[in-house]
Amino acid sequence: MTVSPMLNRLAAERATGALLRDHGTLYLVDGRVVHAESPASPGLDVLLTTGGRLPREGWDEAVDRAGARREVGRFLVDSGRLHDGELEICHLGAVFDAAFFALAPASGPTRFRYGVGHWFGTVRPVSTEAVERETVRRRELLDSVWPYSAVDTAPVLPRPAAPGQTVTPRRRALLAAADGSRTPADIARRLGRPAFHTLLDVRRLAAAGLVETPLEPLPAAPPAVPTWVGEVAADPDVALLRRLRDALEASL
Amino acid sequence: MANTETALKEATAIDGAIGAALVDYTSGMALGTIGGGKELDLNVAAAGNTDVVRAKVRTMEMLGLNDEIEDILITLGGQYHLIRLLKGRGTNGLFLYLALDKERANLAMARHQLKKIEAELDI
Description:
The structure holds two protein chains of two kinds. Chain A is α+β, with helices and mostly antiparallel strands. Chain A has twelve helices and five strands. In chain A, 50% of the residues lie in helices and 9% in strands. A five-stranded antiparallel beta sheet of chain A has the order 4-1-2-3-5. In chain B, 37% of the residues lie in helices and 29% in strands.
């Protein structure tokens, strides 16, 4: 399955730059994905600082001192803030999370800006095939869990648990953060968790009856009368209508 | 201080290792794989084994066991599959997955080595 023909083409020509789509941006170096961002998913700063892994000042310092030379990731490791493996895992998690939203089916234009890099710097490049394959797998996984995508964007509304029904600590934290107005994306940001993971948890909770599933908007009702009626009515044949009226009156 | 690639390479150096993967168990995504080959698709194994881990976590919750899973062993006719949950600080739940050839593997040794790899990965 092809997620983005343009992405395949850019990989084939080993392009370097930024692929801008409706729901996010993918950064490529030599045709491989090195970074991704989406307004729908929390950035690496949120993932690292919300859980307390990194103090906010530590992040800001790294951006100030190494952002201009695009080595923020490297700086975090060299300054002893993060371990090598930790940075890699957290960064990969954020890249795949943002890529899932950036590669969502969209109607808007897709543009590529050659030569544009990201200030975070390269950690571990991944192939575009791996990113596409994972994105498709994630879409299918969500639908296999609970095929109602309305829960992804609606405010999360918890429902009471059935007697004996248990919830894991991870999901308890999610439910506790659901105040009736926060969407899964809001909750992800608040808890410092990847957005996809939160969507998946919300779908699982909805499938278990612990979160409301909003009604899907009804499909547009078919028009009650054929469209030609409207066209005719725009230019009524007044003479014919008069004859009809006269005939009806005469027969009464 | 190992990165994921060196950690996985060390895992395949364990006697009898067929393949290994580092897996995010919430999403089921393999963050890295090594070995496996044609007979064992590690990306599929990664996604499938997250269900194993999740089922066990849920069962423990139902039993009210206030404890953590250290590892899970699955014994097949010809292979051992070891799942070791990583206790990282900032992670969303990861496990190391190791497939071993039963004939050539030393299970106690493999568990010990996997524990060592986790410590070196230091997440």
